[in-house]
Design a protein that fits this description.
Blueprint: H1 11-20, H2 28-38, H3 40-47, E1 52-54, E2 59-60, H4 66-106, H5 110-113, H6 126-145, H7 149-157, H8 163-166, H9 172-180, H10 184-192, H11 198-216, H12 238-242, H13 254-264, H14 267-284, H15 290-297, H16 301-310
Antiparallel strand pairs: 1-2
Helix pairs in contact: 2-3, 3-4, 4-11, 4-14, 6-7, 9-11, 13-16, 14-16
């Protein structure tokens, strides 16, 4: 199969290409500024789909302006910012609760708590547990070798690394895997803190790890879920039924993220997130791409209002 080549184009050539495809560009200097600042790939390839009448030829719908694409880009930028701030608090809470619960039972010395006996000991979990322990030990070793002040201090002064210290250098993904490999009883103790069962919390953590990484690395997020051939999902939980959501909604989209936050954030933090999201939605109501954004994110103000009322 022969593939078309992607060739380098100057900013002026990029603008000419877009105009030839039917995109209105009335202020060439302004368009050049955004192409320089954000890059053609991120700005145009990332956000053109809602405005195309023909994806094969990449021809734009009538009267679509360059500013429409910039507007959608900025909406997604602020959506990432709102979600990342909330997920930072989710991550901090989970690290705190998991490290407290685990340390209370297995102690603070990593040479003692990082043992297979502290985790799920069933045969089908053995390889995953060994991998988890290896990852945590490597984090300690690498950070000690690289001169991490906190890790070096604890090793030199105490001779071990408590889990609550280890979690300061662990990623959200590391902690998600750590939790998934804990004993069922220990996982249930933690998930009950959030009004969930252990499978629900484990699935939410895995799901949120991916959306958090997408936000942190500047990926497009308003289409999160629909961008993947095999989208991640969370299980249907009690809130889905209270909101009377159809079976296919709130499972792998931005609404699913808010549903996770309903359980994992305190009310004031959830309210801050929801108010920001509502303000973003109110602002883009005036834009022509509003319905397309709503369909992709599955964020509707009525859902956000109901989520707050139920918290």
């Amino acid at each position: 199969m022969e593939h078309s080549r992607k060739i380098f184009l100057t900013y002026d050539e990029q603008i000419k290409l877009l105009k030839n495809r039917g995109l209105n560009i009335t202020d060439k200097d302004n368009a050049r500024h955004y192409l320089e600042y954000f890059g053609y790939f991120d700005l145009i390839n990332g956000y053109k789909d809602l405005f195309l009448k023909n994806r094969a030829t990449e021809k734009y719908k009538p009267n679509v302006d360059f500013s429409d694409i910039v507007g959608l880009y900025m909406y997604d930028y602020y959506l990432r910012s709102d979600l990342l701030s909330a997920l930072y608090l989710v991550e901090k809470s989970l690290k705190s609760v998991i490290s407290y619960t685990f340390s209370k039972k297995y102690g603070e010395d990593d040479s003692k708590y990082l043992l297979p006996s502290s985790f799920d000991t069933r045969p089908h979990s053995e390889d995953r547990v060994v991998s988890t322990i290896r990852t945590m030990k490597n984090l300690i070793h690498d950070n000690n070798q690289n001169g991490n002040k906190t890790i070096c201090h604890y090793i030199q002064k105490h001779g071990y690394i408590p889990l609550w210290v280890l979690f300061t250098i662990a990623t959200f993904g590391n902690v998600s895997v750590f939790y998934a490999n804990m004993k069922d009883k220990d996982k249930s103790t933690i998930s009950a803190r959030y009004g969930l069962n252990s499978n629900e919390l484990s699935s939410m953590m895995y799901f949120l790890t991916h959306i958090r990484n997408a936000c942190a690395h500047g990926h497009r997020v308003y289409t999160f879920g629909s961008d993947s051939r095999r989208p991640l999902t969370i299980p249907r939980v009690d809130l889905h039924y209270k909101l009377e959501l159809p079976n296919n909604e709130g499972l792998n989209d931005i609404l699913a993220v808010i549903i996770c936050c309903y359980y994992l954030l305190p009310k004031n933090s959830l309210e801050y997130l929801v108010v920001n999201l509502k303000n973003r939605l109110e602002k883009i109501k005036k834009e022509r791409f509003y319905s397309g954004v709503i369909n992709k994110t599955n964020l509707r103000i009525k859902y956000l209002n109901n989520i707050l009322a139920l918290k």
